[in-house]
Every structure is written in C-alpha cells, then in structure tokens.
Automatic annotation (TrEMBL):
Keyword Nucleus recorded: no
UniProt-listed PROSITE patterns: SECY_1, SECY_2
Keyword set includes Glycoprotein: no
Domain of life: Eukaryota
GO biological process, one term: protein transport
Transmembrane parts of this sequence: 12-31, 109-128, 140-158, 170-192, 232-251, 271-289, 321-343
Phylogenetic placement of the source organism: Eukaryota, Sar, Alveolata, Dinophyceae, Suessiales
Localization: Membrane
Protein name, entry field: Preprotein translocase subunit SecY
Native organism: Polarella glacialis (Dinoflagellate)
Amino acid sequence: DQLFGGGLGRVSLFALGIGPYITSSIVFQILTTVTPALKSLAQGEEGEAGRDRYKDLIKQVSFGFALVQGFGQSTSLSPWDVSSQIMRSRYATDIQLTSWRYVFDNGPLWSAEITIQFALGAMLILFISEKITEQKLGNGASLLVFSSIVANLPRTIASTVSKATEMENGTMASGIFAATLLITILGLVYILQAERRIPILFAKRLQDEASGRGGTDDAGQSYLPIKLNASGVLPLIFCGSLLSLPALAANYTKAAWLQPVAKSLLPGSSLYIPISMVSAFIVSTFQVLDPKDMATNLRKQAAAIPQVRPGKETQDYLTEVLSRSSIFGAVILALLFVLPNLIELLTQLNTPNGFGGTSLLILVGVGIDTWRQLQAELLMQQYATDVDQFYKGRK
C-alpha cells in the first residue's frame, strides 16, 4: 500500500494498479539470470519474435499475480476478525475495529466476481502504461506508480504536519524528519547517477589515429559505464513484497502462529528495520549484467580494456568490478531504504504513505529517467530541425 501511494487502501476497479506487472517483471528478471531459455529470449538471440514472446510471458504471469492479489484484496473486504487487526493496528489503534464491516455477504460467487474485476482493472492499467511508453512520454509503468505516489503526497504531508503540531517537541521532530528526507533524496540522486567508467580501446580508432585520420584523443574518449545501482528500484520493490508476505498470509489463512511473525515484519516494529536492511542488501547484490556477455561483446567489436587481455582475463576483471560496485551500491541502497523508517521510529512521526524509502527511490529515479528521456527527445528533434535547415540551405 505504501509503494502505490495508498492505492490498495481504497476500494476501486484499479486498486491493484501496476503492481502485478511489476511483481511479474521482478520474478522474470531473477529467473532470466538462472534460466538459459529465458535469457536467450530476453537478449534477443531469437530475434524480435523472441523478445515479443518474452514480453507476452510477463503479461500472462502478470494476470496470474493480478488474480492472486485481487483475491487477497477481496478478503480484506470481509467482516472484521482478529487476523485483520494486524494490518490496521499501526494506523488505527484508537478506533473500535469491531465496527469495521465492509461486506456482510461475501460468498464464493461474490469473491470470484470481485477478484476478476480487480484483475481486469490491473490489466487495463497495464494497457495504459504500454500506450504511455509508445508515445515516448517515459516508462509507462514507472510513471503510473510515480503519479499514484505524488497524488497521495498532499494527504500524507497534511497528516504528518497535523500530528507534529500535537506533539510537545513537534518542531524539532519535523526539522529532523525534513532533514532526513533531504539527505535521503540527495543520496538517491547520487546512487542513481554514479557510475564507474572503464576506458575502452577500439582497434579501428587506433588504426585511424596512427594513419592520421582520427583525432589524437578519439580513442581515449570511449568508456564502458558501470552503474553503481544497475538494477534501479526493482530490488527494493521485491524486498518490500517479500516482507509483506507473512502479513498477507496471516490475513488469508487466519493461522494463529503467523500473527506474531506478521507483526514483527510490519513497519514500526523493532525487527522491521534490521530485517528490511539485510533483505535489501541481499537482493540488491544480484547482478543484472553478465560479465561473460560483456567480454564477448567487446571482443566482437574489436575493443579491449587497457592492460587487460581479451577473453577470460577481461571477464574476470569485469566480474571483480561489478561485484565491488554492486556491494557498495547495495550498502548505500539498504541504508537509504531504512533511513526514513528509522527516523519515523525515533521522531514518532508516522507517515502511512509516500515517504518510505521505496517510494522516495521511485520518485527520484522516475524523475531522473523521465528528465533524461525528455532531454534526449528534445535533442533528437533539434538534430532533425538542423538537418532539414541544412538541406533547405543547399537547395
């Protein structure tokens, strides 16, 4: 619910949002690293037909996740019982929960209808996101999540300010909280922008330089960028989904032994911060780049890293660089992930939606990516205009 700006807390046809598709994409990204068949489809080894097949598989699994999440959403509309108190205890401790009854006749037929409606709503959202991407307005799925979080920010800020005014040390707590958000945003900008640039030498450019046909600095300007956080927001989204599974299972199965586990993993509990930090670190260390493929592509392009032999030595060198970068980036990402929650715990300023580490990373990351894409599109339009003017001038 925090990830989608409170969308799951409101009952509507589009309550699931783009969540099922994101979950499916994360699962396929992990499976692609260990499944050769999926890897060949994703990398286009079977052509555009293979890429289309890979995308269709993600959509099909997305519908399956939508059915599961839709069924879970339908169970949350059932009459109140003890297990549902787990999900509401953080924000509704002073409310008489026994009076919460949304549906009085939630039989199998009603649950099936609601589940299908939620699933179809999620697939319609996926269709809209694809149309946004086709119009080159940015990544459609990311922009939809971004807009849902932004739409909920005014209510979240108003709730936080209202609670701060009721506290004795509200001014100090608000200042600490605002400073923490600023530090988190700056840290996210750094980790999303930072990259390790490995110099690359191309044989063709060296030949041109030796024959006097190339610039003296032409070969030295090429490099291989290695992102400090190559996987982006996916690790934190996946981590948040994993941490929410016990609470969802406790709500669905009504198992008494799951309730203590679910409570310990809810935001605000004593175990939530250390467990989420360790989980974010482990998930973030998964490499999305394959050193073997990178070394093979360099050899095909007649390129090499200075003072590193092509082939196995290049692969080992890239493996070491990727490992160091991923570990360093995972440490920073894990710290930024839990920092807002830690400050909430210390200042007692709970923000139900919009200010979590995952939400901030999405806001900053999508903002940066959209800005880059818009700049690239404007640059392409400028180039097209200059070319048209050049040919008109020659005529």
